[in-house]
Amino acid sequence: xxxxxxxxxxxxxxxxxxxxxxxxxxxxxxxxxxxxxxxxxxxxxxxxxxxxxxxxxxxxxxxxxxxxxxxxxxxxxxxxxxxxxxxxxxxxxxxxxxxxxxxxxxxxxxxxxxxxxxxxxxxxxxxxxxxxxxxxxxxxxxxxxxxxxxxxxxxxxxxxxxxxxxxxxxxxxxxxxxxxxxxxxxxxxxxxxxxxxxxxxxxxxxxxxxxxxxxxxxxxxxxxxxxxxxxxxxxxxxxxxxxxxxxxxxxxxxxxxxxxxxxxxxxxxxxxxxxxxxxxxxxxxxxxxxxxx
Length: 293
Prior knowledge:
Layout: H1 2-17, H2 21-47, H3 53-61, H4 68-77, H5 83-92, H6 97-102, H7 111-132, H8 163-193, H9 196-202, H10 210-218, H11 223-234, H12 240-249, H13 254-261, H14 265-288
């Protein structure tokens, strides 16, 4: 019986994956070209944005690219942006969630509300945090912190033309593999538990606790996390409130930079704790208002 369950789940996962791979590659290709030609200009602009930095940071971070949360973390460590701006970037970062949704025509309508909600949360939290916990911006020129790679070993410090095609190909393969494995696991679990609703019950779907669990899960600095959250939501195993909580706390590799390269460990703890609490609270508010898509 277990062999039959695996085989059927494997077939379903593969059939779900095949139609989205070309669209996923096209999405990553367009993103790569925009990132290649505009990324440096945007990063420079945010450093010079002053009081508008949280607003601009939130909007820029919502664009699904792999390096901006890393760059923002480095800018913060060097004293070039505020805590609020960094939080706005983290909370708005879309990572892999948006490309995955865009590759699924029947789910692409989720993109705009998800992005707008995350931007709104990022802007409000960013300005509130800077107001409550002001911190002087003062560049530390002694720090030479330049991240070499982002996701998929992608070089975000140099512009290499061959990566205009190579990176989307590698990225498509990696994310497709994530989607396949995660879908396979979720399909097996749904079969074992009897339904997506039953699996959701075990994951505390419909409970105010689930957004906290999702926000904690989102803190893992890996792009597979946002893919997992999207697939669990699509399969009906987590609520929309938990999806938002998890996607808000998931800031790609930005957290890893703060944990490993920020010498002020108390500051790192404050940032990560704030990211978790704001993300979980956003999920709880959405849960209590019964907002769903």
